[in-house]
Amino acid sequence: xxxxxxxxxxxxxxxxxxxxxxxxxxxxxxxxxxxxxxxxxx
Length: 42
Known about the structure:
This is ArsR family transcriptional regulator. By secondary structure, this protein is of the alpha+beta class.
């Protein structure tokens, strides 16, 4: 599911599959959770 969403990549080496985080995709996801502006009164 994470691979389909583009958040992780994978590489098969023989019978093993090595996974890695796609940092650009995770950064975009994190940007969605940060506020676009400061709350009023701060």
